[in-house]
Amino acid sequence: MGIISIASGNSCWRGLDYFKDKKVIKLRKINDNEYTSIVRGNKNYNVYLNIEHPRKSTCDCPLAKGKRVICKHIVATYFTAMPEEATNFEKEQAKLQEEYEQYQDELYDKVIGYINKMSKKELIEELIHIFDYGPEWIYDDFIKRNYIE
User: Fold this and answer.
1) Among 82, 109, 132, where does a domain finish?
2) Which of 54, 68, 118, 132 is most deeply buried (CB count within 10 A of its CB)?
């Protein structure tokens, strides 16, 4: 398991921002797998990064202090120590976003194709089913969009 795979999505993105904003100061390499740094945030935070054993990494910020949590400061330190990993992270996220958008487009086309094949009676039955069993916001949005009181 790597730093990115066990960090939350929010910690990864905020850590990337901190990396890009050069908030990691005084990065010190201990060996090929261990680093220490100071990261500017609301105050300066002390980070110990262990790439080989990520759960041994520590930060004295409120989120991670005394816990085995990978916070944005640890992620920022990781990206600073290994900038190619920041590039890889961004590329992978862009690829995933593109795949998701393609999936959504394909799904939309399938739904439209299915709807176009339905009879008026089938459409009415499906709409009633959606109002009865779908999330409340669908019903509320329909009411608002059609000015029904």
Assistant:
1) 82
2) 54
